[in-house]
Amino acid sequence: MKTPAQAPKGETLSKARLRVWLKLLKSVNGIETEIRRNLRDRHGTTLPRFDVMSALARFPDGLKMSDLSTYLKVSNGNVTGIVDKLTEEGLALRVAVPEDRRAQMARLTAKGRAAFEELAQHHEDWINTLLDGLTARDVEALSAHLDIILDRHMDEDGRDAQ
Question: How much is the pLDDT for 7?
């Protein structure tokens, strides 16, 4: 039986870890490509728009625009354009921040929440289909292993903690 420090197939452990990283990257990129395609083809929307709606759904009282861009790790300009379009479509609204006249909060409208709930359900279904080869035990083990990486090397915002 192998000890955790041993690599498979006579490789060095660093080579085996590199191979795992490349497989993770290929998997994530493939899944993201499929999600982007499904959002575009089936719902006429984009992943960045979905991400903005998802963030706003997590914060029903709204987020300051600057906090939204920080949360999503994108520029204020990217967020502004998406929120403007969502607002035009009646899916979001902007309200002034009482304690800061220069700042605005964005939040989903009832129509926006309903639209996002539908998108989110389809998103979950797509992910479930893409990962249907994994058993519950596989998912639990993979999640635990990824938690080890995240806990050791990333802060809560996903930045390198070292």
Answer: 62
Round to whole Å and give the CA distance between 71 and 157: 8
Half-sphere exposure of 98 (CA within 13 A, CB side): 0
User: Cα separation of 84 and 69, whole Å?
Assistant: 14
Minimal CA–CA distance to 35: which of 48, 24, 20? 48
Contact status, residue 146 vs residue 152, Cβ threshold 8 Å: no
**Residues 74, 47 contacting (CB under 8 angstroms):** no
Name the DSSP class of 7: P
3-class state of residue 97 by DSSP? strand
Nearest to 47 by CA among 33, 61, 59: 33
Architecture of domain 13-131 in this structure: Orthogonal Bundle (1.10)
- Residue 156: predicted pLDDT: 55
Q: Do 62 and 106 meet the contact criterion of CB atoms below 8 Å apart? A: yes
Do 53 and 89 contact (CB within 8 A), yes or no?
no
Maximum Cα interatomic distance, the chain, rounded to a whole number of Å = 65
Helices (H) and strands (E) in the chain, counts: 6, 3
State pTM to two decimals: 0.82
